């Protein structure tokens, strides 16, 4: 269904076998990948940067959705676009001028995304949304996989769906067969999933379970 796309978050994949992981996920039917970039400063966790995006780019022609959990995205957005990202999502909670970063991303010709942590209200970012293609109300505090779904994201999805009918809505954090249906009903169409895929041996079965849970 065009209305629901599950994006595996590669945070928990086996990076020693990246090619095999990407291949298995493609075989299982995924239609895009979500890459979590963390700088050990905006969030306490540290992951990877441009070389991994570039590596994934060489292994797939599917869209690569890059979630930048970094304090100074303005410094790096061009490099991430050059590395092959199809969309770049930055956090509203950064110290930099978020609207300037969103405009920079637009200039780069890739998808423009804005993420908000659970404590950030929808209202506080509403004026930035005309600059965006996508809003990501986080359903966990950005930083780690395997956390429990926070339903505060659902109300933000509903507000965004109501006020900005054309905005793409993504949800990320604790999305599993028990929480995905509420996200779908609230208006999300892009579902980032880490543990609920990588915690399973059979990726196809995991994906089928998730799509079945939203009735597709
Ligand atoms: C968390 C990341 C997520 C994470 C999701 O900060 O943005 O993409 O990998 O993992 P799960 O599905 O395990 O919550
Ligand atoms: Zn993410």
From TrEMBL:
Question: In the record's cofactor note, how is the cofactor described as bound?
Answer: Binds 1 divalent metal cation per subunit.
Q: Which reaction does it catalyse?
A: D-ribulose 5-phosphate = D-xylulose 5-phosphate
Kindly state one GO CC term assigned in the UniProt record.
Answer: cytoplasm
Residue sites binding substrate per the record: 9, 67, 143-146, 172-174, 194-195
Give the signal peptide as a residue range, or say none if absent.
none
UniProt similarity note? Belongs to the ribulose-phosphate 3-epimerase family.
Instruction: Kindly provide the name given to this protein in its UniProt entry.
Output: Ribulose-phosphate 3-epimerase
Q: Which organism is it from?
A: Aureliella helgolandensis
Name of the gene encoding the protein in the UniProt record: rpe
